[in-house]
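Q: Got a minute? One more chain.
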Amino acid sequence: MDRIESILVAIDHNGGSRQVAKAAALARRFHARLELFLCNAESAYVQRHQYYADGTAAANQSSIAESRCYLEALWKSLSIDDVPVTMDAAFESPRYEGIVHKVQRSAPDLVIRSIGEHGGAGGALDASDWELVRTCPTPLILMRGRPWKARPAVAAAVDISGDEAPELTRSILIAGERFATACHGSLEVLYAGRLEAAAKAAERYRAVLASRAKEAGARPAELHVIDGDPAAAMPRFAAERYYDLFVLGALTHRKALTALVGTLTGRLIETLDSDFLLVKPPAYRCPV
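A: Always. Here it is, folded:
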């Protein structure tokens, strides 16, 4: 992850004020500009499935104008005057394709997807959001409403078992360090897996974690080696730590299923009340 100079915030008509306020606070930390984006996928879907196509262009323009008005009113309600902002809207279905197409046009350094005005773990992502996790070509934050602590706790989860590509591990650690530093927070690095019976197994994995962090220029405050099935052990451990931002790979490591969201990633998103920064391998190519 290079410098963050532009942040695209994809929101819906049914809220987004808390997430936009959090995105603005993040933009201040990185001295970045915001672009608010609203894709009216529901109306586009209805329009596409009507029997008569008359008036489609007019409906398209009317929807975009209405969405822009909503974004302007939302931004004005927050009384933020120290963050550069632009606004855009689209009339496209499915929603995730509209967002990805906007990413391809604007080339932001980071995408923020609002996934629930009132916070809360689980149940906030629909099928289109999961597709966005799978296809978004830019680092993606899934942002809930819970405010971050004054000094945010950032967790970076990596796989040092040999399944995860070294380039992805490095990208996750660099991203975690960058956010922790910009926000004056702390970074913790996590690995979960079934350890061997040897008493020194955890220390050996901890040494590998320290080595990978050093290679990436990351300076974690703590290293955690968690024994057990990652999809079960990692969420249990993380639930007790109250991380503000969780950084991890978006896709499964299995070579035959590289287009699918990873099991651990899905489990963490479904169970934790954290924001998530999802990173893809440098060689990832967007299928949209």
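A: The mean pLDDT is 86.
Q: Perfect, thanks.
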